[in-house]
Amino acid sequence: MGRMSRELDKALSKTIQSQTVNGGWPWFPGMPENRYITQHIVTGMGHLDHLGIKSIREDQKVQNMIYKAVHYLDREITKDFAYVKKWDKDYLIRKHIGYSQIQYLYARSYFPEISLDKDAKEAIAYYKGQAETYWLEFNIYAEGMIALAAHRFDMKELATDIVKSLKDRSIQNEEFGMYWKDYVVGYYWYEAPIETQALMIEVFDEVTDDQAAVEELKIWLLKQKQTTNWKTTKQTTEAVYALLLKGTDLLATDEMVDITVGGKAIEYVKEPA
User: Fold this and answer.
1) Are strands 177-179 and 264-265 parallel, antiparallel or unpaired?
2) Model pTM greater than 0.70?
């Protein structure tokens, strides 16, 4: 535990140091901040907070880092909305939401206690409405993000409708558990089956507390690790986060280990209580 704590502190320190003065993070040192990677990091901080990692709430430097990052993202979503209003007089009845704005709503939903200024409030209200209108036009990953954001933003009916739709479209298999045939592996960050499945565990756990579905979703995720592997750091971290959420410990077992020495099996003798 001591080593894990030190490694976490080291990682957090490195993350703080690489943050730009504007509050975002670049892909690599020396580059300008990048919105996607900043939203990804903020989401990661939300995951750690959700799992009860104390340093996320108790370390002032970490809190300052998150505060700066969230406000950087608020400014970006405000710019999006300002651009829409400037160039489309019919913006209220046309689609202007994309995966970046959906990722923002999801990331932002982890930190409702961080205040929004007037312009950011107007922008986020607009994109909430856009998400409610157009959610069916996005892939499963984005739908899951919208469901979680809606649930946290007290848009309960929308969140429940999305989860019901997702469950209706799912495949449930005795060996592989619950998954979706629509998974597509692609270049973009939202075309990622492992990350999508991990998000679905979070969705069914938090929005509807459907623990039976959660356990079925975990089976598919663990099967991917068993048959191939989780190919990237991002896939691994998202999968581990999902598996650490509440539910049955699929790795727990009461069975004794079989040990053979020189071709002879070792017999266990139960000690009296």
Assistant:
1) unpaired
2) yes
176-210 pLDDT, tens digit each:
999 999 888 899 999 999 999 999 999 999 999 99
Contact 260, 266 (CB under 8 A): yes
Structure tokens at 13: 């320190």
DSSP secondary structure code for residue 25 in this structure: B
Q: Which residues are paired to 34 by β-bridges? A: 25
Rounded Cα–Cα distance for residues 225 and 227 (Å): 6
C-alpha of 209 from chain center = 17
Spatial contact of 200 and 144, defined as CB atoms under 8 Å apart: yes
What is the number of other CB atoms lying within 10 angstroms of the CB of residue 174?
7
Other C-beta atoms lying within 10 Å of the C-beta of residue 141: 28
pLDDT given for residue 5 in this prediction: 72
